[in-house]
């Protein structure tokens, strides 16, 4: 039967009940969601405790390789278990006279990582087609992969020698990454 307002009486009651029950259901879900969010830090895997990281990684800032760098470190079972210093040019960035503060920052990071996290190794990862080599050295090495590997090898080897001189207890690993994420070890 029609209500004087033109609505069915049963429809109005059902509509209000539906609104209340759906609002109540939403509140229950929202509360449950908040609880899950609050519990997430307790249930998700956490990074290693300070003091247990054994590696400091120096890599370039090139946005094209960030995912590849993380994938490489993850494949070595080091996910969220290394200190990461990023300088344009990686080894070149730590060595260039054009940005002496960068080298100072790198050495400061190595010292802090040793003191705070007791690192045992430094990994230096340069990459091919590096814009820092163009900017700081005026060299586009990418057309000649052999020459590119040779020049990167010179900077990587120089930085390794300096790390070993300042911190003889640290291992140093030298790597050269391609734009496809493939990594070559560089002998020094």
From TrEMBL:
Residues 1-10 have a biased composition (Basic residues). InterPro entries: Carbonic_anhydrase_sf, Pro_CA_2, TAT_signal, TAT_signal_bac_arc. Residues 1-20 are annotated as: Disordered. Pfam families: Pro_CA_2 (PF20393). One of its GO terms (molecular function) is carbonate dehydratase activity. This is Carbonic anhydrase.
